[in-house]
Amino acid sequence: MPSAPTNLDEFDHRLLQLLQRDGSATLSTLGDAVGLSASAVQRRITRYRTSGLLRQVAVVNPKALGNVTLAAVWITMERDSARAHAALCARIRAAPEVQQCYLLAGEWDYLVILASTGVAHGREVAERLFADEGNIRRYETRIVFDIIKHGLELPTGPAPRRRAPRAR
């Protein structure tokens, strides 16, 4: 697991926010926006990458492809054992169709986001990952009709404090 820099200053928070919105921004543009030189921005980005805090990926817009079907799959395990969870997690990590997976508290144990090339492909993936496994009690799949927000931005620090309205 990457070890993030322990001390992020205000420049780091602003720079990381900008990089998450547009990873193709030039060093000069980023520097102007946060008040640093291009070389200082480059040193910080190198530090982020070296520490594992920042990685570079290409994000493809699923709406632009036109042939992507997204589905949310809710999973409840039959037995709550470390071995059963580890086996499921290994299958999920190995499946390229799995975009995201979350371990949950409550009635459902996992939420999995699948990306496939259509409903039939999504069904095949869900059956391969979940139906043939004896440790899954139940799973439900919900097809995504439309993407309202698709983001990958993470907060890097606490939200700015809002001032309370003044009493009149």
Number of contiguous helices: 6
Q: Biggest sheet, strands in spatial order?
A: 2-3-1-4
CATH 4th-level superfamily of the largest domain: Lrp/AsnC effector binding domain/regulation of amino acid metabolism (RAM) domain
- Main CATH class of the largest domain: Alpha Beta
Mean model confidence by pLDDT: 89
Low-confidence stretches: none
SSE class: alpha+beta
Helicity range: 25-40%
Percentage beta strand: 15-25%
H/E element string? HHHHEHEEHE
User: How many domains make up the coordinates?
Assistant: 2
Number of strands: 4
What is the gyration radius calculated from CA atoms?
21 Å
CATH topology of the largest domain: Alpha-Beta Plaits
Q: Determine the N-to-C terminus distance.
A: 52 Å
Please tell me the CATH architecture of the largest domain by its name. Answer: 2-Layer Sandwich
Structure in words:
The chain has 168 residues and is an alpha+beta fold. A hairpin with a 6-residue loop joins β2 (98-103) and β3 (110-116). The N and C termini lie far apart (52 Å). α2 (27-34) crosses α3. It has a 4-stranded antiparallel β-sheet, with helices on one face. It folds into 2 domains: 10-51, Arc Repressor Mutant, subunit A (Orthogonal Bundle), CATH 1.10.10.10; 62-143, 2-Layer Sandwich (Alpha-Beta Plaits). It is built from 6 helices and 4 strands. The model has no long low-confidence stretch (mean pLDDT 89).
